[in-house]
Amino acid sequence: MKINGLHHVTALASGARENNAFYTHALGLRRVKKTVNFDAPDTYHLYYGDELGRPGTAITYFPFAGIGKGAKGAGTTSEVAYSIPLGAADWWAERLDALGVPHARRDGPFGETGLNLAGPDGEAIALVEVADDPREGWTGGGVEAAHAIRGFHGVTLTLRETARTQALLETMGYAVAGVEGARTRLKVANGNGADVVDLVADAEAPRAIEGAGSVHHIAFSVPDREAQDEARRILTQAGAQITPPIDRDYFWAIYFRTPGGVLFEIATAEPGFDRDEAPEALGTALKLPRQHERLRSRIEEILEPIDA
């Protein structure tokens, strides 16, 4: 199975403007696509990542106005960690102080150093210093290359029990890289840099409640539809209940629910976010799924401006 690490992470937000400002200004990521939810076209789908939104860099949000706040617990992605260069944490601490974003030093797990912070809806974010990450961060958001976020480092899943989800990830090509108390770290070899999935066992945790600040699903990257079909075949044989491939305009996606309750997706690296915008113009125009193009004037009236 040709899993290359994470493709993207999709989460929920309470407001589009604040969400956009945090990820493009505070974190300095590039908004690589401004589109709408396929099933709720009156709601944005915003993508933030590196210059091209390459697999392993893109966090995406559905900002539903008036949505209730999510509650932390078991059966969810409890933290998203980004890779930053060695020694960059002090610079980020000063930047976040200047912007009024609360943060704390991160010491561990597995000897990691960096910062812990929260997004505008309380989402748990880590900036982890990673040696020898060759990816180039986006510098158009006001963060110079020496400090820029390279992409995802990984995600943490909090589960009541982890054995079955660990077995699923091992079927997907991940291997145990370390155990520290209730935390098991799995990594995929020769990945795209977004290689880490941590499983944290907490048998007493209440069930997480989905809402603003919670992760809706995590997506894993494969190069193309042939690799996706092979992944679907292997996972189906292993007992997973998987959707047919779905065209998401910028990638093809299949979805399945893990034994621990987390929604997984496997997404193709092709065709990419520059299929309908020039690379230098990514994320500037409102792009609509084909079936919603006829509703453009109405959708543009409903959606709040986010670039003011």
Automatic annotation (TrEMBL):
InterPro entries: Extradiol_RC_dioxygenase (IPR052537), Glyas_Bleomycin-R_OHBP_Dase (IPR029068), Glyas_Fos-R_dOase_dom (IPR004360), VOC_core (IPR037523). PROSITE patterns: VOC (PS51819). Residues 5-130, 151-269 form the VOC domain. It holds the Pfam family Glyoxalase. PANTHER family: RING-CLEAVING DIOXYGENASE MHQE-RELATED. This is Glyoxalase family protein. It comes from Albimonas pacifica. The lineage of its organism: Bacteria, Pseudomonadati, Pseudomonadota, Alphaproteobacteria, Rhodobacterales.
